[in-house]
Amino acid sequence: MENVFDIAIFGGGVIGSCIFSELCRIGKNCIIIEKNDFASGESKANSGIVHAGFDAMPNTLKAKFNVRGSNLYKTMCKRLGVPYKQIGAYVLGNNLDIVKKLYDRGLQNGLKPSDLEILQRDELIKRIPNLNNNINCGLFAKKSAIVSPYLLNICLAEEGVINGGKYRTFFNTEKIEYKNNLFYIQGNNETILARTIINASGFGYNEIAKMLNVEQYNINFRRGEYYVLDHSEKDIVSATLFPLPSQKGKGVLITPTVDGNILVGPNATTSENITKTTLEGLNEIKLKSNNLINNLNLKKTIRQFAGIRTCVDDDFVVEKSKLNNNVINIAGICSPGLSSAPAIAEYVVKLLGFNSKKVSTNKIKPYFLAKDLPKSKYEMLVKKDPSFGKIICKCEMITKGDIVFALNRPIKVLTIDGIKRRVRAGMGRCQSGFCLDKVAKIIAKENNISVFDVLKEYPNSQIFVNEIKGDAND
After folding, report:
1. Is residue 280 over pLDDT 90?
2. CB atoms < 10 A from the CB of 413, how many?
3. To pair with 46 at 20 to 30 A between CA atoms, which of 40, 240, 303, 411?
4. pTM of the full predicted structure?
């Protein structure tokens, strides 16, 4: 019989990739299947915050997985070599009763009294000098942290691969048949066989569920828009700032990123699965963010973007299907989904009845950027490989060597945005205005393909479409 996988995972976001990594590390024969590229859906467009766990309602999966996931994060990021910064978070407003409720909720969810601190304005102003004049109280959660959501996602997937896992990106699933206790997954002119399916496909959950003949859910899409500020504004806040939460979510926040930018947003708009920004939405963010601090300079914006969150009622869905015992359903993983990822993966391993004590010690080689090396090490690196001395992205000081390093890792990269999410080429002030063509040509050369086959991000998103003069591959 053809090779049969123990488990096939649909969805290359942070949830699917974290589960993939955990299963591969305990020796399971797994494949992860993604319609586009890793970290190209919900996992690429969120705030990158590892929430402390005081916001979710007690006794929900959100609360359980958030607190447990937060406790697992530091060790996981250290193992992967992914930046993790515990900067803390403030929830700010002028209603002390709500602040106290959040404090109590945090304790119910399993946080310790030392993890949370109720503060009055006189203490807040010492910590946040540019605090808005209307704020008189707040809650400080010292365990709140930040990560790069897309780099974390990619490294988890790579870790799965180096531990024996297989992957398919840009895979168009056309049909799934279940016969003789096996799933036959058809697409891209091949058939993949698996004994168990984990459906963590986010936007496409119902599409896969329908093919599997298992539970479908009423998934609501919520669009959240953001401003990204230039590095010049990195000192405007040193911790994550939230307003008091509403029924729509945690509200418009201001947070540093691990890469030195400031994120402002998101709003929450019921929407179709369309990632577009709107003037109305961006104006809403501008108004609400100014209610947190003074002197927020949105003129220093280098990019605006939108992400989509998928929600099912008021909680996550993580369950064994009642219609097919060999299917795990994972749906509605909105906030705090990123924070919950390692706990969800841990839970799924237990749902499947596997022993997770024997874990592989195979580790991925951490990503690094030449610009971050000490001068002596940088000079030694350039002597060994001169490509690390050739700047491709001037805004972020990313070298050709950085890009080639990313292209020769366990997962093949065929997209410009894939490189962007790995080494930040194109994430600076000009937003790829000067380096896009150079990056595309490096991708083409390293993959031995034509530059006309290099994609921006999704299928049929080629950058080069016709040759006017000369050789586009030069």
Report:
1. yes
2. 23
3. 411
4. 0.96
